[in-house]
């Protein structure tokens, strides 16, 4: 056994990066690393990065600048860059910041232990290949820690959709689905380690088409029904879905699978058909709205969430108004909205850009509308009974916090439950960004 070393991981970007950070920690466990919550005592710092918008990518370089100063007093400290900036910029990162010892892409991190050993020999290590072996399988037998009640499980990676603004098909590669049995085994292992709720992850999770135990290709709904059989697993969620891959059997699962939670993140990006076409989204505003009608017919209380981009090249005030109209019609419980960010190498980067001040102003209007809807939906929860998966202690003594079926954070005073318990609660108050409930 090698001596214990400390690993500090800072995670940016989407939930897939959160999942990957956990796997990277396991990968380095083989070299004697345990995670630490502060960079101060770390022997290795890993930044797991995001390339989706320019700001996200630039943040990495400013953070690396700080790390370099930090490293000046700690000559044995190794600095690594992982994730989507690593994939997109590889060698360029080492050129821009010589303090970086290691660069690893999102498909290669199962080889981290060897890479780390290389850095200890004073060499630089870079691996951004899309290897043929399965990284999840390669990490399968690593020691794993006890887990919090809610966990992520990546079932599908990559994207073949090539929306005109997006880097994901380049940083994460083509769509690949993991086989059903391996996902079920991982779910069972998570449950044994204390997990009650699993969120299935993928850049296009509902395009999932993994090999089933019968040798046929299974869709996401079939996978969900298989996970429904796992004893001790109480809740299933999935994210992120594409409107074009919302099959009938998945909608039906929302009606009939009790473990599948009534929450759906279904990004639309814009409400203007002209812009949707320019974005290469291959759905229209109307087809999206009709789809939501069908989903709500199956599960009337489902809480919808979405993503929006404002100021996409050539977006007019009229196009933007169509987005606001769509939002009015859907009523979102949550939404993530962004100003369009030019990503070099994507088709939209070449087009006439909307002035920044115009985009900022539109973003403000859109966010005001979303906040209003979100608040109304939260207020509407008052008096309703929900089930809360308790996650941890709250700020006040005797208070516990967790998530409702609808992913609302709920805090319960004088709560007798422990983390991992499901408790029934009546919502008494909607406070900013969370709900207060009383145990019933
Ligand atoms: N696969 C998912 C989400 C991928 S990225 C999907 O298709 O919905 C998450 C969100 O980031 C996107 O939904 C989009 O709203 C936003 N995004 C992606 N590229 C962007 C860009 N160049 N500028 C601004 N926002 C962007
Ligand atoms: Fe990006 Fe579009 Fe793929 Fe989502 S579907 S990851 S937005 S290219
Ligand atoms: Fe960012 Fe990569 Fe996720 S670019 S959003 S971390 S897939």
Hetero groups? S-adenosyl-L-homocysteine, iron/sulfur cluster, FE3-S4 cluster
CATH architecture of the domain at 5-127: 3-Layer(aba) Sandwich
- Care to count the β-strands? 21
Q: pLDDT under 50 segments (min length 5)?
A: none
Percent of residues in helices comes to 25-40%
Q: Which structural class do the helices and strands define?
A: alpha/beta
Backbone shape: globular
Q: Roughly what is the average pLDDT, rounded to an integer?
A: 95
Distance between the termini: 50 Å
EC number: 2.8.4.3
GO molecular function: 4 iron, 4 sulfur cluster binding; metal ion binding; tRNA-2-methylthio-N(6)-dimethylallyladenosine(37) synthase activity
Protein name: tRNA-2-methylthio-N(6)-dimethylallyladenosine synthase
Function: Catalyzes the methylthiolation of N6-(dimethylallyl)adenosine (i(6)A), leading to the formation of 2-methylthio-N6-(dimethylallyl)adenosine (ms(2)i(6)A) at position 37 in tRNAs that read codons beginning with uridine.
Description:
Its cofactor is [4Fe-4S] cluster. Its EC number is 2.8.4.3. Helix content is 35%, strand content 23%. It is an alpha/beta fold and 440 residues long. Among the domains are: 5-127, Methylthiotransferase, N-terminal domain (Rossmann fold, 3-Layer(aba) Sandwich); 147-261, Transcription Regulator spoIIAA (2-Layer Sandwich), CATH 3.30.750; 385-439, Nucleic acid-binding proteins (OB fold (Dihydrolipoamide Acetyltransferase, E2P), Beta Barrel), CATH 2.40.50. It is globular, with a radius of gyration of 22 Å. The model has no long low-confidence stretch (mean pLDDT 95). It binds S-adenosyl-L-homocysteine, iron/sulfur cluster and FE3-S4 cluster. The site of FE3-S4 cluster (F3S) has 13 residues, from helix 1, helix 3 and helix 6.
